[in-house]
Amino acid sequence: MDLNKFDTLASLTTEKVVWSIRVRAQTVWKGINRTTNEFRGFNIIFMDEQNCRIHAFITEKLCPAFSKELKEGNIYILSDFKVHDCKGDEANRAVRNQKHIYFDNQTNFKRITEDVPLMKEYAFDLFGLNDVPKFLNDNRFLIDVIGTVSKNEAISVISTEDTSKSRLKFKLEDGRIWSWLRSLTNLDNLLKKL
Fold first, then answer.
1. Bridge pairing between strands 148-159 and 82-85
2. Complete edge-to-edge strand list for the sheet that includes strand 75-79
3. pLDDT of res. 1
4. What share of the chain is helix, strand, coil (3-state, %, to 5)?
5. Max avg pLDDT among 36-40, 120-124, 159-163
6. Residue 193 pLDDT more than 70?
7. Comparison of pLDDT for 193 and 52, the residue scoring more
8. Which of 54, 64, 104, 112 has its CA 20 to 30 A from that of 149?
9. What is the CA radius of gyration of the chain?
10. Measured over all CA atoms, what is the biggest interatomic distance in the chain, rounded to whole angstroms?
11. CB distance 92 to 142 below 8 Å
12. Which of 83, 76, 68 is nearest to 46 (CA)?
C-alpha cells in the first residue's frame, strides 16, 4: 500500500484543487443565520492521522448531495475541493488552522467502511484559565471551559535530531464526579445518624 496516497491537512494550499485526504469528521453542526434562522449549510471539523484539524463548509445548495453520508465520527476520503485562506476577522472559528475547505460541485466524498485506519476520535487545544482574558477580545475563535486538568505528569520524551516532544498524561475533570462523591458522603452521614 502506498503510504503517501493521501495528502495531509498541513500540506493543503490554495494553489490547487486536486487533493485527496483521509479524515475523520470530528464534529458536524448546522450553520444557521442568526437574523433569519435560515439554514446556511454544514460546518465540519475534519481531523487527519497527524491530528491536524481544519474547518470545512458545505453550502446549503450542495447539502443534499452530501448530507446522507455525512455523520460525526465517520472516516472519509475527500477529494477535489477548494482550499481558502482565513482572512481578516472571521468570527467564531473552531480551529486555529489558517485554511478552510469548501465543498463544490466537483468534490468527491466517500465513507471508509473497510480497512478503516486507526485514527483518534477527538483532538482539541488546551489553554490555561489565565489565557481566557486574551481570548475574550479576540472573536475569531470559539472557546469553552470544559474542565480542570489534574494529575498531570510527563510520561515520555520523543527526540529526533532537531526536535524533541514531550507527551503529557493527565486527567480532565468537570467537577461532576466530586459532586457525586460529596453527595454519597452526605448520604452516608445521614444514614449513620438514623
1. unpaired
2. 82-85, 99-102, 53-59, 39-47, 20-32, 75-79, 108-111
3. 44
4. 15, 35, 45
5. 36-40
6. no
7. 52
8. 54
9. 21
10. 75
11. yes
12. 76
Nearest of 93, 36, 76 to residue 60 by alpha carbon: 36
Hey, is 172 helix, strand or coil? strand
Cell 486538568 locates to 149
Contact (Cβ atoms closer than 8 angstroms) between residue 97 and residue 85: no
C-alpha cell at 116: 478503516
Question: In which residue are the cell numbers 465543498 written?
Answer: 103
Query: pLDDT digits over 110-150, tens only?
Result: 999 888 777 878 777 777 777 777 777 776 666 666 677 77
Whole-number Cα distances in Å, 30 to 37, 46, 176: 11, 15, 29
Read off the amino acid at residue 97.
Answer: N
Q: Are 122 and 105 in contact (CB under 8 A)?
A: no
The closest of 84, 94, 85 to 44, measured between CA atoms, is 94
Quote the pLDDT of residue 34: 84
